[in-house]
Design a protein that fits this description.
heterodimer, A: alpha/beta, 7-stranded mixed sheet, 33% helix, B: alpha/beta, Aconitase, domain 3, 2 domains, 17 helices, 32% helix, globular
């Protein structure tokens, strides 16, 4: 079963300038009770996005109509805490294809990659440059090129390269699925079991 | 060159190395629970597959379960449905499942070691970040996402990049009233909530070696709270003594042979780590957190940092955390009001934690105005506590022993701390809203929780209990 493919993306962004955004903020535990993968985007950043009565909190960037696009930009140590894949599902389901930060938590990074959501880790300086450009123009666009492993601020031309392991890059580019791949290794796994 | 403990276990489970740094890693034991498994079961079904190695898979109901009246139908329809899905999926795939009401039910990271499923040298995964707990036995154990749960279901393997290696040594003797929880909170306060990211930690040193298995589990449990992939401790006589005689552990001569093999699991003297830290045990005091990540902790006798010198998003995030907590930089922690106390979770929900709490509150009274939730980590812990009469001691002091589950650690069930209220919690996360929307969590060890329950304030447990 193929995962969504990713090659390049050029669009606006939504910035959440907060450090250590844990997966409990991305999707609070009380919204993890579904037995199917659907509708998680509605509760993305639930307690930052809506007040206790369910009214949108205007100051939160997701509620600011001037920010538009499929790229989420956040401060360092994004996705720490719980291993819930629902966090990656919520971000993807909301409509984001890329998350940019200067530092990602390990489990979140894996979960994102397994769902066709590209985590782009940039330098602190480049992240600051993105936030600065967004202060000048909320509609500023970023261009992400997975093949070249680069991200650029379109208006200024500033560019930063990012890392991704070659296996995962292939999976995203071609839509390959890990389960299919592992099942194809069945004979090799059986031999491993027999030898141990 | 020599190998680290981590290398020895990891390398023995490599099925294949891929170009670009990923490993096809064989998994010995797969723990599952109701929250992160249903979508994986669904994916498997859609592929026309069944669980490849059901005998190596263990299921328990924990995240959603109520902690009172467990014999009654669950009121929350969604929770009920998710728990029913776990039982149904396990039946369809021949997986042993400790559903609600089962005598072995409990929090996954408490049940696994208790039943002897967790053993040295194993690879262990679970769709739960606190899987690092099992590293206390010298296992490579780590949390995974639901896609990876599906991978393990389908193939008993996952694809992982090999993490870097970190060693954290804690040497010397811990002071009276200082617990293993304080040790790990201290470590995280020193290296930060992201200081371990990309690494697998080996905890070592005389203070770690002197700990019981349950204390070691508390340390490894919170390795994820500094961002580490996992934490582990070399198995020794303490480990073997804990395991001997437990269900699912080899018996008799087979046990002796296993121990012989387990004794080879240590870091060779000439092995190297990417990062090493050393801390002095006597310098560690009872710890308490003041902010909204586990790295924001101080000694209970200390004050909340002022944030001086922080700039940019560091400053914004620090101010946001204090504002959420209703605290100000420079304030003392001692004397702060406490509304709720939570004893439990995969961090501090074991029998030693309940023995300690009961021994401290014995002959005293719970403070008026404090709501205390004492939630054993498993049916086994609950039964043991009752067998030892701890429930009576607790009742005399104004406390009630509840029924096992994850409870207020993540507030998926009805055990939610109300908005704005202050909780002293023996769990592992003080994130915004973790214990309920708007709840304000201060993480601490068992003695601090006992002191807060008795006084209704943050107090130094060494003073309150003359430790």
């Amino acid at each position: 079963m193929p995962i969504p493919k990713f090659t390049t993306l050029r669009c606006g962004t939504v910035p959440v300038k907060i450090e250590n955004i844990d997966t409990d903020q991305i999707i609070p535990a009380r919204f993890l009770k579904a037995v199917e993968r659907k509708g998680f985007g509605d509760n993305l950043f639930r307690d930052w996005r809506y007040d206790a009565q369910g009214a949108p909190i205007e100051a939160f960037p997701l509620n600011d109509k001037r920010y538009k696009g499929e790229i989420l930009v956040a401060s360092k140590n994004f996705g720490c805490g719980s291993s819930r894949e629902h966090a990656a599902w919520a971000i993807y389901d909301y409509g984001f294809k890329v998350v940019v930060s200067s530092f990602f938590a390990d489990i979140f990074k894996n979960n994102a990659l397994n769902n066709g959501l590209l985590p782009v880790q940039v330098s602190e300086e480049f992240l600051a440059a993105i936030f600065k450009e967004l202060e000048r123009d909320r509609a500023a666009q970023l261009e992400v090129d997975l093949g070249r492993q680069t991200i650029a601020i379109v208006s200024t031309g500033e560019k930063c390269s990012f890392e991704i392991d070659s296996y995962k890059k292939q999976c995203l580019t071609n839509g390959y699925d890990d389960v299919d791949y592992l099942v194809s290794l069945r004979p090799e796994i059986d031999s491993y079991e027999a030898a141990h | 060159m020599g190998k680290t403990l981590f290398d020895k276990v990891w390398d023995a489970h490599v099925v294949r190395e891929l170009d670009g740094g990923r490993t096809v890693l064989y998994i010995d034991r797969h723990y599952i629970h109701e929250v992160t498994s249903p979508v994986a079961f669904l994916g498997l079904k859609n592929r026309g597959l069944k669980v490849a190695r059901p005998a190596q898979t263990t299921a328990t109901a924990d995240h959603n379960v109520p902690t009172v009246d467990q014999h009654l139908p669950i009121a929350d329809a969604q929770s009920r449905e998710q728990l029913e899905a776990l039982s149904t999926n396990c039946r369809a795939n021949d997986i042993e499942c400790f559903a609600l009401g089962h005598p072995k039910q409990g929090v996954v990271h408490i049940v696994g070691p208790e039943l002897g499923f967790t053993q040295p040298g194993m690879t262990i995964v679970c769709g739960d970040s606190h899987t690092s707990t099992h590293g206390a036995f010298g296992a490579v154990a780590f949390g995974i996402g639901t896609s990876e749960v599906e991978m393990v279901f389908a193939s008993q393997c996952i694809l992982q990049p090999k993490p870097k290696k970190m060693r954290i040594a804690v040497d010397g003797k811990l002071g009276a009233g200082v617990t293993s929880k304080d040790v790990i909170l201290y470590i995280i306060s020193q290296i930060s909530a992201s200081g371990g990211t990309g690494h697998f930690i080996e905890f070592a040193g005389s203070a770690i070696c002197a700990m019981t298995m349950e204390e070691r589990m508390t340390v490894c449990n919170m390795a994820i709270e500094c961002g580490a992939r996992g934490g582990m401790i070399a198995p020794d006589q303490t480990t073997f003594d804990y395991l001997q005689g437990r269900e699912n552990v080899p018996q008799g001569e087979a046990f002796d042979r296993a121990v012989e093999q387990w004794r080879t699991l240590f870091t060779d003297p000439d092995a190297t780590f990417d990062i090493e830290y050393r801390f002095d045990a006597p310098a560690i005091e009872p710890m308490i957190t003041y902010g909204t990540n586990p790295g924001m902790g101080v000694a209970v006798t200390g004050a909340i940092p002022t944030g001086e010198g922080l700039t940019g998003s560091d400053r914004t995030s620090f101010d946001k955390a204090l504002e959420y907590m209703g605290f100000h930089g420079g304030e003392k922690m001692i004397g702060k009001k406490v509304d709720y106390v939570f004893l439990g979770s995969c961090t501090n929900g074991r029998i030693e934690d309940f023995r300690l709490f009961a021994s401290l509150v014995k002959g005293r009274r719970k403070a008026e105005g404090v709501t205390a939730w004492l939630v054993p980590g498993s049916k086994d812990v609950e039964a043991q506590a009752r067998a030892e009469g701890l429930d009576k001691t607790l009742e005399q002091a104004g406390f009630v022993l509840r029924q096992p589950g994850c409870s207020a650690c993540l507030a998926m069930n009805a055990d939610k701390i109300p908005a704005g209220k202050y909780s002293v919690s023996t769990s592992n996360r003080n994130f915004e809203g973790r214990q309920g929307p708007g709840a304000r969590t201060m993480l601490a060890g068992v003695p601090m929780a006992a002191a807060a329950a008795i006084t209704g304030r943050i107090e130094d447990p060494r003073k309150v209990f003359e430790l």
